Every structure is written in C-alpha cells, then in structure tokens.
Amino acid sequence: MDKKADHQGGCLCGAVRYRVEGAMRPVIACHCSQCRRATGSFMMASAAMHDHLTIEGAENITWYNSSDTARRGFCRICGSNLFWEGAGRPHTSITAGSLDGPTGLSLGRHIFVADKGDYYEIADNVAQSQTFEGYDPTPPK
C-alpha cells in the first residue's frame, strides 16, 4: 500500500483539481466493457476514502450513472474521465492518469479480464481475476 500522505491531480483543462490526504490503494486495471467504452481502453484507477478527498471545481464535474450500482465523474469542460464511485462504497476510485506524478503507486491487480479487448494481451506478472475476488478494493483508512 502507498503510505504517501498527499496526492493531487486534476483534469486536462484544470477546471477540476483534487487533493487526497492519506494513503491510496494500489492501482487496479479494469478490463470490463464499461471501462473500455468510457476510456477507450482499460481503466487504471487507484482510490481514496471519501473523507480524504477534497475537490476544487466540483461544479465542473458531470456524473453519469453507468449502471444501477455505479457512477462515473468527468470534467464537463474537457471531458477528462476522473472518478468512479460504486454505490455504498466508502471510497472514490480516481483515474491513475489524472494524478500528478510522481505518484509512488504500483499496479496491484487486473480485474474483469474475461471482458478484455481482443486487440491486446496482459503480459505482466500482476494478479488477474474475473471480479474483485480475493482482493479488497478499499484503500487504507
């Protein structure tokens, strides 16, 4: 787990900036069809507890209910994909590419690998699963 006490990031145009005070979860690569459609590839995201996340420019975030159990947040100005929130979860997933570097984070798992695109292979030695099975996606408190 990342023990860095502070992370910052934001969208492409700068209308949305955020700060995480506290540790973040290792990055998860999600290969589900929704993430692939939302990003153009697979989604790479870390996460922070809700009470550790402060957002400036929140009025510039548009939330899209991508399913009955999740929503995705993106900048309404530049379209940057920033957040994913699962209903009832105590954390917000944050796209890894929107974080200012260096992050100190590492890839922890590939999920929903059966849904991955047929145009690429997963060639690293990182754990893979069909869901979150065997992996707690909640960041440290």
Strands of the largest sheet, in order across it?
6-7-8-9-4-3-10
User: What is the helix content?
Assistant: under 10%
Structural class: mainly beta
Oligomer kind = single chain
DSSP E strands, number: 10
Rounded radius of gyration (Å): 14 Å
Largest sheet: 7 strands, mixed
Distance from first to last alpha carbon: 11 Å
Strand content: 35-45%
Kindly report the average pLDDT value: 91
> Topology as H/E string?
EEEHEEEEEEE
**Broad shape:** globular
Tally of helical segments: 1
Structure explained in plain terms:
Strand 7 and strand 8 form a beta hairpin. The chain is mostly beta strands. The protein has one helix at residues 33-39; strands spanning 6-10, 17-21, 27-30, 43-49, 53-56, 61-65, 70-75, 81-86, 91-95, 107-111. The mean pLDDT is 91.
Question: Any key phrases for this structure?
Answer:
141 residues; mainly beta; seven-stranded mixed β-sheet; three-stranded antiparallel β-sheet; 1 helix; 10 strands; 5% helix; globular
Give a quick precis of the structure.
By secondary structure, the chain is mainly beta. The protein contains 1 helix and 10 strands.
Question: Layout of SSEs?
Answer:
Elements lengths: L5 E5 L6 E5 L5 E4 L2 H7 L3 E7 L3 E4 L4 E5 L4 E6 L5 E6 L4 E5 L11 E5 L30
Parallel strand pairs: 3-10
Antiparallel strand pairs: 1-2, 2-5, 3-4, 4-9, 6-7, 7-8, 8-9
